[in-house]
Amino acid sequence: MNIVLIALLLTGIAGCDWIAPSDDSPYNHIFREQEAHLTEDASSPFCDFSIDYTYLEAKDDSIATLINHAIQREWLGDAYATLAPEMAVDSFMNVYIRNYRNEVGTLYQADKAKATSGEAIPQWYDQTYSLVTFVEEGHAGTVNASANWFVDMGGAHPNQWSRWMNFDFVTGKPLRKQDVFKAEAEQDIESLLLDKLIRQQAEQHPEENVTSLEDLQKLGFLQMTSMYIPDNFLLSKEAVLFLFNRYDIAPYSAGEIVIKVPYEEIGQWIKN
């Protein structure tokens, strides 16, 4: 089914959920996986690399192509933005692995030479890169895109973060928070998010009696910043989801924070 036709269907039934037909999905999928050793020696350290990538079936449709290019720019980088999706993923993988071998290989060879004198080779040479992406229908007339990274370079703990985006299915343009939420409603939305966060943490920590900002701060939340509307949000079918990555508003141990706000609670502050 042509993407423009899908867009017209979506806008024509605003407020209703649109489900892609199972025999003509507008999505394609790429999976790449490689255990890339530093040297030709199979016992040498390696990078466990994987990408599970979803993108829109573009064919000759410019809207889907615009969305794919914007997603590739965010997920992979400017150098891969305008390539065909499979070429972008393969090129990114090849460059990442080549850089791993070039940048880490010299250090490994030096440590390997020292190891003959009894020094152990550091464990950090074994690394992991994982990227999982999703694209799906969002709230009427929008497309949701999300990416989740897991990168372990041998530090104290792995780096894990997510990036969310929304697109207008008719124009292909990304929808930033200033495009979606009324400027005059910023404080109201922040207050709503704070209240939701207090309730969320109260449920997760019943022994702490969390009822206020001060109680959140005792748990490590919002110590370095006030509540704010994050750039990471999704206009999903049933609610607006707001994402705070590790360290955004809480310590690493708190993990990813997702606050769900139904449209009936936030709809008055969303632009028409």
Explain what the structure shows.
24% of the residues are buried. The chain folds into two domains: 3-175, Fervidobacterium nodosum Rt17-B1 like (Heat Shock Protein 90); 181-269, Alpha-Beta Complex (Actin, Chain A, domain 4), CATH 3.90.640. The protein is flat and about 65 Å long. The protein has helices at residues 3-12, 62-75, 85-114, 177-180, 186-204, 213-218, 263-266; strands at residues 27-37, 46-56, 127-137, 142-152, 159-168, 233-235, 239-244, 257-262. The chain has a five-stranded mixed beta sheet with strand order 1-2-3-4-5, with helices on one face. A three-stranded antiparallel beta sheet has the order 6-7-8. With 272 residues, it is α+β, with helices and mostly antiparallel strands. Mean pLDDT is 89; it is low at 1-23.
Keywords, please?
272 residues, alpha+beta, Actin, Chain A, domain 4, five-stranded mixed sheet, three-stranded antiparallel sheet, 7 helices, 8 strands, 25% strand, flat
pLDDT under 50 segments (min length 5)? 1-23
CATH topology (level 3) name of the largest domain: Heat Shock Protein 90
Report on the biggest sheet: 5 strands, mixed
Anisotropy-based shape: flat
Instruction: List how many beta strands DSSP finds.
Output: 8
**Secondary-structure content class:** alpha+beta
**Strand ordering within the main sheet:** 1-2-3-4-5
Tally the helices: what do you get?
Answer: 7
Beta-strand content estimate: 25-35%
The portion of residues assigned to helices is 25-40%
Average pLDDT: 89
